[in-house]
Amino acid sequence: MSDPTAHHAGITVSNLDRAVAFYTDVFDLEVVADFSVGGEAFADAVDVAGASASFAHLAADGIRVELVEYDPEGEPMPARSLDRPGATHLGLSVDDVDAFHGDLADDVETLSGPRTTESGTTILFVRDPDGNLIEVLDA
């Protein structure tokens, strides 16, 4: 297994444009990427039926702040769901998400197996012992 490196801290927001304006105006962060992701693989990976979302990545001194606005047309949001405003997760990148998944202990909870999304990124969400979400993605 490769050593994970910090990739991003993710925050689910209710209005992406408003959140981007806040983080760029108040903290002077720079938008380095913006994109949308949907489809079955993404919905499976985040465990939200019919999920699609718009993303903005902002540079913050060696780590990205990932702002995510989920499409409100999806299913109702479960209490521990990633599409709930205020939801957070830690993003760690590894050399091979599939190999990482294969090495996980049986008692480690995942939302799904590894999924390659429309953006071409392979992702896997796991929960820590307190239920906090960690997104594992290809380096």
From TrEMBL:
A Pfam short name: Glyoxalase
Source organism, top-level taxon: Archaea
PROSITE patterns: VOC
GO terms for biological process, alphabetical: L-methylmalonyl-CoA metabolic process
GO molecular function: metal ion binding; methylmalonyl-CoA epimerase activity
Residues in VOC domain copies: 5-139
Protein name: Bleomycin resistance protein
Keywords recorded for this protein, A-Z: Metal-binding
